[in-house]
Amino acid sequence: MYFPYADPRPSPALLTAGLLFDKIYFLELNFFRPPSQGRAAPNESRLLRELLELGCFSEIGPHLLGFNQLVSPGQAVIDESVRGEIQASIGDDLNNEELRWLVKDSGKVHWYLPNGQYLFWSGLGIIFDYIRNNQGELVPVPEILATRPKAYKEILTGWGYKTEIQSYEEARLQDPSGELMVRLPFLAAESLMLTVALHACREMGLAPFTDNALHQQFLNKKLSHLSKRIGDGADLLPNLSPAYSRVGTKLIELSLPRIENLTPDRVFQLRDKCKEQLLPFRQELLKMAAEIEANAWEPEFEQHLTRYIDSKVRPAVLDLENKLRDLKRDLGLVILEKSATTAPLPFLVSIFTSMPIEWVLPASVGVVWLKEALSYFVNSSKLKRNGLSFLLNLG
């Protein structure tokens, strides 16, 4: 799953992901719109046509994640336990000193929702509900920029939502999109979208991946923080306590040649012409994930994983690399050789050996809640002892 924002564009990294992965999911481009009602046709996808035609991108909407389809103050998330986990995750991020410094160092200040007509569906409704249930100086305050500020002030105040509302003229904002826009502090927006993305991964069994170093760093710091908290309370989880001594992220670099002139059309052709190499490549990554799941807590896990990668995964990567070079002339590919000053594309597989993706939201509530969640996972045969993520780094 591409995270955290719902705006994939044909960047070099995303096009490479479109070549390597069979399916890529992402939050709806307009994730704040309501799903179609009754027998009405689904809302038309706003994914760029050139990406849509690749056939590997699929949207995830609010209706698939248990978010309210109607304006219902206090219940943007229908399931009460999930609502508590999502709010705890956001609160944990807002109080995380490392994440605050990360955002500050990035220079990011605000995040704009350009069309707030559906601001109570999914994402922003979660922030409003969080603010209503929590007080303190770290609580983010959404700024509403509207053509009718007085009317929106009355509505939001009546629902008990804390916000600031001003006209576009007062905000000195040019070329507004729609009747109202919403401006959020960047940390709150980053936490909101990453939390929703992690919830989607948990619900649909997906591995998160990004082409942006800031978002990957945010996720890594969040996982590391939660892992430490769980480690401090490991006495409450006696059957799983050996796992919590292994905090951190292990990176495996699988080197692929960098194709400088990838386009959606070239990706479409490569997916067809390299299908005999791509299939085993994808299968070996899936098998590697299964190996991690089965052996992550064994004493010689790292040695076992290294041997598996060397014997199974790297040969599949090499076959794909050789095929790409064979097609270089036919498709006019510009491939940077490994001897070039710019390094080939490192395909980084991040293995969160200390924090499975399924544990992130329950762990945000606390160790006791996590213990209850793990009991449910075990009984439902859904417990996974690892998290697998991907980072395509072109830097």
Label this structure with key terms:
395 residues; alpha/beta; 2 domains; four-stranded mixed β-sheet; 14 helices; 12 strands; 13% strand
What would the average pLDDT be, to the nearest integer?
77
Tell me the radius of gyration: 22 Å
Query: What is the helix fraction of residues, given as a range?
Result: 40-55%
> What would you call the shape?
globular
Strand content: 5-15%
Number of helices: 14
Across the major sheet, the strand order is 3-6-4-5
Largest sheet, described in full? Answer: 4 strands, mixed
Total strand segments: 12
Oligomeric grouping of the chains: single chain
What structural class should be given to the helix and strand makeup? alpha/beta
State the low-pLDDT regions, or none.
240-248
Count of structural domains: 2
Please give the structural blueprint:
Layout: H1 12-20, E1 24-27, H2 49-52, E2 57-60, H3 80-94, H4 97-106, E3 110-113, H5 123-133, E4 143-146, H6 149-158, E5 164-167, H7 168-171, E6 180-185, H8 186-204, E7 209-210, H9 213-232, E8 250-256, E9 258-259, H10 264-273, H11 275-295, H12 301-326, E10 335-336, E11 345-352, H13 360-365, H14 367-379, E12 387-392
Parallel strand pairs: 1-2, 4-5, 7-12
Antiparallel strand pairs: 3-6, 4-6, 8-11, 9-10, 11-12
Helix pairs in contact: 1-10, 3-5, 3-8, 4-9, 5-8, 11-12
Describe this structure in words.
This protein has helices at 12-20, 49-52, 80-94, 97-106, 123-133, 149-158, 168-171, 186-204, 213-232, 264-273, 275-295, 301-326, 360-365, 367-379, and strands at residues 24-27, 57-60, 110-113, 143-146, 164-167, 180-185, 209-210, 250-256, 258-259, 335-336, 345-352, 387-392. With 395 residues, it is α/β, with parallel strands linked by helices. It has two domains: 62-206, no CATH class; 207-392, no CATH class. The strands form four sheets. The protein has a four-stranded mixed beta sheet. The protein has a four-stranded mixed beta sheet with strand order 7-12-11-8, sandwiched between helices. Helix 2 (49-52) links the parallel strand 1 (24-27) and strand 2 (57-60). Helix 4 (97-106) runs antiparallel to helix 9 (213-232) and helix 5 packs across helix 8 (186-204). The longest helix is centred in the C-terminal third of the chain and has 26 residues, at 301-326.
